[in-house]
Specification:
Largest sheet: 8 strands, mixed
Radius of gyration: 24 Å
Shape: elongated
Number of helices: 13
Number of domains: 2
Order of helices and strands: EHEEEEEEHEHHHHHHHHHHH
Strand content: 15-25%
Oligomer: single chain
Number of strands: 8
Structural class: alpha+beta
CATH architecture of the largest domain: Sandwich
CATH class of the largest domain: Mainly Beta
CATH topology of the largest domain: Jelly Rolls
């Protein structure tokens, strides 16, 4: 595996022109003189990569999975994620933006960019743009390129990063649209999530292994943990951990009504290390404490 900590070296590897800035590179794939490397060994970098590509054929891996390409696929890679592609043919449309993580240091975007979940998706789920979304994203790139290629002054970096952040905000909006629009295709990720939890409890895995982790559930559903949580949030308004908590609370209601149980024993049985945390969570979700819930139902 080859690692690139220099954008200039990465451009050289790709046979692209050298970047105008050592820590920020733009490549317009529409340029007639821009070559395309059809295949590559696994590589990693020290920079964020945003790429709009129109793939004709071939295979591209993101992490350990293959990317599901459609026309107008917007891809996001975080530093040190593994990228590999094989026999990929592209249309002469699109762009690549390379931002070294050091370029962001000292700016609010250095932390903000880490909150965008799509940089940690390790599934075959690129952002598939609608024609209208393609127009918006392309216009933003053109504005970014115009500033990037103009005479640099004390305002240049701030303007470049403001345009970049605007692009990321639009991507976040478009991903939410995609989560909602593809629910039918995905058979409702929320429903599949609940079915996986139910199966986990029904087969006795909970008794042997304790509370399932989000990583385990995501692997069962063939998505990344971050993608799972973001998709569930868009679909139901609740994150993956909130769904797990709600499921555990339902289980707790049944256990609390069994003879001889205590609040602490129920908490430990459900995988909570601290009964106090379980009691706070239960009251937050149900409106009464576990003891109050049990006493109320025992009297009925």
């Amino acid at each position: 595996m080859e690692h690139f900590n220099s954008i200039q070296e990465f451009h050289k590897y790709m046979s692209w022109p050298p970047p105008e800035h050592p820590m920020f590179g733009l490549v317009s794939l529409a340029s007639a003189d821009i070559p395309h490397r059809g295949s590559s060994q696994p590589i990693t970098t020290d920079f964020y990569i945003i790429s709009l590509k129109y793939v004709i054929s071939g295979k591209m891996a993101y992490g350990r999975t293959s990317i599901d390409f459609t026309r107008g696929s917007l891809l996001f890679y975080a530093p040190r994620q593994t990228i590999q592609w094989e026999d990929v043919a592209l249309e002469k449309i699109g762009f690549v933006i390379n931002i070294h993580e050091d370029y962001l240091r000292g700016h609010a975007l250095a932390e903000k960019i880490k909150s965008y979940g799509f940089f940690s998706y390790t599934v075959n789920e690129a952002l598939h743009l609608s024609p209208k979304e393609e127009t918006i994203v392309t216009a933003l790139y053109n504005n970014l390129a115009a500033e990037y290629n103009s005479h640099q002054d004390e305002h240049s970096k701030e303007i470049v990063l403001a345009l970049l952040e605007t692009l990321l905000k639009y991507a976040e909006r478009f991903y939410k649209r995609q989560f909602i629009g593809r629910q039918e295709l995905q058979r409702g990720l929320g429903q599949r999530f609940k079915e996986t939890l139910a199966q986990y409890f029904a087969t006795g895995k909970f008794n042997d292994l304790g509370t399932p982790s989000i990583d385990w559930i995501a692997k069962e559903l063939a998505v990344s943990p971050r993608y799972l949580s973001d998709s569930l949030k868009a679909e139901s308004g609740k994150t993956a951990i909130e769904h797990i908590h709600l499921y555990l609370i339902d289980e707790a209601k049944n256990l609390l009504l069994e003879p001889g149980t205590t609040v602490a024993s129920v908490a430990y049985q459900l995988g909570f290390e601290y009964p106090q945390y379980f009691s706070r969570l239960f009251k937050k979700k149900v409106g009464v404490s576990p003891a109050e819930f049990r006493n109320h139902h025992m009297l009925q």
